Every structure is written in structure tokens, then in C-alpha cells.
Amino acid sequence: MIKLPRTPCLLALILCAAPQLLRAEVPAVPEWALPGSATHHQVPPPADFHRPTARFEAPLGIFQGQSDVGGPLLPGSASFDAGTKRYTINSASYNIWYTRDEFRYLWKKMSGDISLAADVTFPNPNGYDDRKAVLVIRQDLADDSKEIMTALHGAGLIHLALRPEQSANIKEAHRIKGETGHAGDAPVRIGIEKHGDSFSLFVSLKGEPMHQVGESVGLHLEGPFYVGIGFCSHVPDKSDTTVVANVLLENSAGKVR
């Protein structure tokens, strides 16, 4: 007859094994994906490196679905408060740059002209400086999709950037050097407008009326494409949060405000 271990012994075995089991569930972060630091410089991913996007069809607020673009090591999440019109987006993800992206994306499939704008805040004041809350229009949900985006970084930088073709490097079109936010500051409002194949960046830093920054840039997207908001912590194994509020999304140009 086989004797089972007494309960205290069994519990001790489980507790000893638990850390190893938990570590086994989270894949190691590739060296190239580690965030920049005093001793490390983040570099582009290998040319043939891709992860499939995890896609969720459940609607949230005005958006049709959500995706963890690029299959981040840790799953993201999002919620919507209908009373305050706020989307809270959580993500642990590598970057939205170079030749591929990782981020939590709330999206709606659309065609034609687009006006998209939103208020952005970072509840955690100690997040990585290069984390990005984004408004992005993408051809598809692949991690290397053709796209154009505007992003607010944790350190206050705002830019308009685009990936002109699938798998190409993202190119920055315009940038504004903002300031790191503090508790009680008014949210920064960013916007992007699509008029045919022309895209423009709009910004309000301190509650002033939205105004265009820089010249419009060109990019052709075939409809339907994906339009939405997202967040990237820029640290592949550490989740962070952004709050995106008062989202304006209209199927016409000239409506950003």
C-alpha cells in the first residue's frame, strides 16, 4: 500500500515547488527587448522575430474589440467607466517602434476620413519614461502592421510617427518636448486626423484649444482599417497603466477638438 505524505509535508513540497512553477510560466525577456538604462541600450528586434496577436472581440465603450498586439509576455487588460468616460488600460509590453509592436489595443474597424482625440494621464508617477499612450490607425492587427500614431510618453514627449510599409522601421514625422506630468495637472490632449491619405497631429498641452503641430504627412491605408487607443509600458515583464478619457472618434475629418 502506498502511503501519502502527511498534510504538513505535502504543503511544504507545494510551497517549495511554487516559485519554480511560477517562474516557468513567464518566458524570459530577450536581451534586445530590455528597456534602456545606464548600462543597456534597447535595440531593434531580430528581422524575423514575430509573435501572434491575441485578439478579443468583446466590445468596450465605443470600441468593437481589444487585442494584445504582438503577443506580450504578460497579458494586458482594459476597463471602461461609462460615468466618467474613462478607459483604463494596463499593459506590460516591449515597445511600439522599430519593425514590430507590442501593446494593448482597443480598436474599431473603419474606413474613410477619421478624427480621433483623447485626454491622457499616467496614474503611476514612477513608470518608465518611454512608456507610450497612443492613438493609432493600423492596416491590420499584425505586430509589424503599416500604421500611423501619435503618442504621449511618460516623460512628456509627444510625436507623430508612421510605419510606411509592413515590417518597415517606424519613422518620426514631428515631435514636441513636453513635461513630465504631476498630480493635479490637467490631462494632455492629443489628436490625429485622417483626411484621405493625409494625416495631421493635434495637441493641447495645458487646456488650450487643440492646434495642429507640424505639416501633414502622407500614408495610404486600405479600408477597412483599425482605429483606436492603446498603451505600452516599454518594460516587457512589468505592467503599467494609462487612463484615456473623453475620447472623440468621428468618421470625418476636421472634427478634432
Q: Would you kindly provide a brief summary of this structure?
A:
With 257 residues, this protein is mostly beta strands.
Low-confidence stretches: 10-19
Name of the CATH class: Mainly Beta
Work out the helicity level.
under 10%
Order of helices and strands: HEEEEEEEEEEEEEEEEE
The overall pLDDT, averaged over residues, is: 90
How many domains, as an integer? 1
Number of helices: 1
Largest sheet: 8 strands, antiparallel
Detailed description of the structure:
- The structure is a single chain.
- This protein is mostly beta strands and 257 residues long.
- The protein has a single domain, classed as Jelly Rolls.
- 7% of the residues lie in helices and 43% in strands.
- An eight-stranded antiparallel sheet has the order 1-2-7-16-9-10-11-12, with no helix packed on it. Strands 3-4-17-8-13-14-15 form a seven-stranded antiparallel sheet, with no helix packed on it.
- The protein starts with 6 loop residues before the first helix and ends in a 7-residue tail after the last strand.
- Residues 10-19 have low confidence and may be disordered.
List keywords for this structure.
mainly beta; seven-stranded antiparallel beta sheet; Jelly Rolls; 257 residues; eight-stranded antiparallel beta sheet
Task: Set down the secondary structure blueprint.
Blueprint: H1 7-25, E1 54-56, E2 65-69, E3 74-81, E4 86-92, E5 96-97, E6 100-101, E7 103-110, E8 114-121, E9 132-138, E10 147-153, E11 158-163, E12 171-176, E13 188-195, E14 198-204, E15 211-218, E16 225-232, E17 240-250
